[in-house]
Structure formats: C-alpha cells, structure tokens
Design goal:
Layout: H1 3-24, H2 28-48, H3 52-76, H4 79-89, H5 95-117, H6 124-131, H7 140-151, H8 155-176
Helix pairs in contact: 1-2, 2-3, 3-8
C-alpha cells in the first residue's frame, strides 16, 4: 500500500466520521466546528485527487466564508430564536421531515443506480492512468484556463455572485440583530 493510498483512507475516514458527527450531534456549536473539520478533510481529498484549484476554492469559499457566516449567525442569534427552534424540534413527524426523507431516498436511489451502472475501469482518464503506470500528472493548463475564463468570459457572473454573497451577509446581520422595543 502506497503513501497516497494511506493518506486517502485517513482523509476519507476523517471526512466521513466528522460528517456523521455533524449529523448526529445535538449541540449546534460542536456540529459547526466538526463541519469545519469535514470541509478541511474534503479539501485534503481534493489535493490527493490533484485538484489543487478546487481544494483552495473549498478552503477559501466554504471554510473561510460560509462556515464563518454560519458561526456568526449562530453566535449573534438571540436566545429566543434558539428556544423556538428547540420547541419546533420536539415535534415528532412533520410534513417537512417527510418531504426531506422522500427527497433523500430519491437521491440515494439515483446515486446507487449511478454507482452500479458506471463502468469505472473504462473511463478515459482512468484507462490513460493505467497505461502510464497509474500516475496522473497535474497540468497547469487547467488552472490557467480557469483563471483566464474567470476574469474574462465569466467576470459578470463572478461579480454577481460576490454581490449576492454580500447581500446574504448583510441580511444575516440584519436578521440576527435584536430589535429595540420602545
């Protein structure tokens, strides 16, 4: 077993274990911090898959932006909001839970169907890696193309997404602010 395989299994275990902890934990703060570990481990898996741009994007956007936004929204929310969520959580079965379970079951069936029907050994990039002694080499052409397209062809959507994220941050700050009673 090579070092890359050992690192893959360690990172996959950390990702799965922390994701299960996030889903099973009853404490929101612990779930948020374990989600932080899940996202970092996922970035490590991207690095092992030679997707360095996706790994850096994972860290910058999800860990650096969205997770911090979730943490601030939780910390700035009032105790009344958390108490209302606890009361709502005590309901055993609601329409939302049934719909969520239905969608999760459909997604699981589609994912299982895809895994069973795909012939992974005959994918072009895997066949090419097998021919070249199982070594996949990164190319800088992909990263160069992403950078050039992001700053030329996709500049308007890129800026629109940044404005949308800023509006979400302002909205989260506004919603978490306590209103003054007169």
């Amino acid at each position: 077993m090579s070092l890359v395989q050992i690192l893959f299994y360690v990172m996959a275990f950390i990702t799965l274990a922390s994701a299960i902890f996030v889903a099973a934990s009853k404490t929101l703060v612990r779930s948020i911090f374990m989600f932080f570990i899940t996202l970092f481990a996922l970035a490590g898996l991207y690095v092992l898959a030679l997707a360095d741009f996706v790994a850096i994007t994972q860290i910058v956007i999800y860990v650096g932006g969205i997770l911090v936004l979730i943490l601030f929204a939780f910390m700035l929310s009032g105790r009344e909001t958390l108490d209302a969520l606890q009361k709502q959580k005590k309901q055993f079965i609601s329409a939302n839970k049934v719909a969520a379970l239905f969608l999760a079951a459909i997604f699981f069936i589609i994912l299982l169907n895809m895994v069973l029907k795909v012939d992974a050994d005959h994918l072009p990039w895997i066949a090419n890696a097998i021919k070249t002694n199982n070594v996949i080499t990164p190319t800088s052409i992909t990263t160069d193309n992403i950078g050039i397209n992001l700053m030329t062809r996709y500049l308007l959507p890129f800026e629109a997404i940044s404005i949308l994220l800023m509006m979400a941050l302002v909205g989260a700050a506004h919603l978490s602010r306590k209103e003054q009673t007169l």
